[in-house]
Amino acid sequence: MSKVVKFGGSSLASAEQFKKVGDIIRADKERMYVVPSAPGKRSKDDTKVTDMLYACYALAEEGKDFAKELKAIKARYEEIIKGLKLDLSLNDEFKTIEKNFKEKAGSNYAASRGEYLNGIIMAAYLGYEFIDAATVIFFDEKGDFDAVKTNDVLSARLKKCKNAVVPGFYGALPDGTVKTFSRGGSDVTGSIVAKAAGVDVYENWTDVSGFMIADPRIIDSPESIDVITYKELRELSYMGASVLHEDAIFPVRQEGIPINIKNTNAPEDKGTWIVGSTCQKSKYVITGIAGKKGFCSINIEKDMMNSEIGFGRKVLQAFEEQGISFEHVPSGIDTMTVFVHQDEFMHKEQQVVAGLHRLANPDTIDIESDIALIAVVGRGMKSMRGTASRVFAALAHNHINIKMIDQGSSEQNIIIGVSDEDFETAIKAIYDIFVITRI
Ligand code: ASP
Prior knowledge:
Elements: E1 3-7, H1 15-26, E2 31-36, H2 49-61, H3 67-83, H4 91-102, H5 107-126, E3 129-130, H6 147-159, E4 164-165, E5 170-172, E6 178-180, H7 186-197, E7 201-206, E8 227-229, H8 230-238, H9 249-255, E9 259-263, E10 272-275, E11 288-301, H10 311-321, E12 326-328, E13 335-341, H11 342-345, H12 349-360, E14 364-377, H13 387-397, E15 404-407, E16 413-419, H14 423-436
Parallel strand pairs: 1-2, 1-7, 2-4, 3-4, 7-9, 8-10
Antiparallel strand pairs: 5-6, 9-10, 11-13, 11-14, 12-13, 14-16, 15-16
The protein binds aspartic acid (ASP).
Residues 9, 37-38, 48, 50, 114, 168-169, 183-187 line the site of aspartic acid.
């Protein structure tokens, strides 16, 4: 077996955390390639180094003095180096960074230094080779990730070394300029390295023991998920569950490499396995619940709408013309409802309404705001009778009015719309009926 291990910012925030990471890596020879994030928060009120870098560079860009801010960033790294008793100086690196900031090397370059410097420290600490991600991870002229070139260069490079550290979050454009993925992108790097190295497992180490069935800010100590499929994860992440970057599943998914989410602070915990498919039944009928507030519904009524060919297209065109994407479109006989993100829709509301009148000529248009959407996801639902009825019974008992119901054809999820103010109660009610009382 061989593994790629990625460690998140909180796992590398201090020398103490670095030591835990070192122990984890040394405990298992199969952990061959390491992808570090930049140092994260040491406590709740702390600032991530990535955010410090963005702020520092913003000053440089405005031509202001940034010496104090850069010194504070350097101090974060020096504290780690000192705590690990390493014979390593980053003086030259910081001189280069200062020079490049003055020459306005760009905010992508600035942010990437967080991972770059942490990678240098990690490689020195482990005695592993350091591979600058800008030499092995590539974006094309348009700024899109170049999967083919990256895989060719990176796999050839990794073949030459048994152990290496590849910093997360960034790569290079064809002209060599540094470019980052979106925030949290070290997860993506980990997945890319796992694919290129052809390992058996991609371990993603963070500060929680995997995915929880529901958001711990709403449910007190929710149970964790042992095994989840890529598909289920996609549904839950889309609805706001965030442990892993959304794009991180794609490179490994193509290769059938499972991801294991693990906790640096509790390495014995099994964590969550993310797999392509599994015969393992989830403990409960549902695998997870997630949701988001802040949607609007635009209810469009027109007599005989169901027999008017092209009506749906015209309605959606009114949204497309304003650059608004829709989330769900449940329809009735003479009605059609479009769910959109409130913050995207709000400023263009009247243009959309005008477009609807012009294109679809409806009888009435009625807009409702502050709606929350909740997804109840589970591969077990397909073969189970009564899942929907349990969801609805739980909500009814809690006096929650359901505004929308949508079950995808995959039968792996049920999406329910409730008002924003019922959001937390609804999640608690669903969690309760499936996980606590298990009726
Ligand atoms: N350090 C970057 C961020 O804060 C990337 C990462 O941690 O994955 O977004």
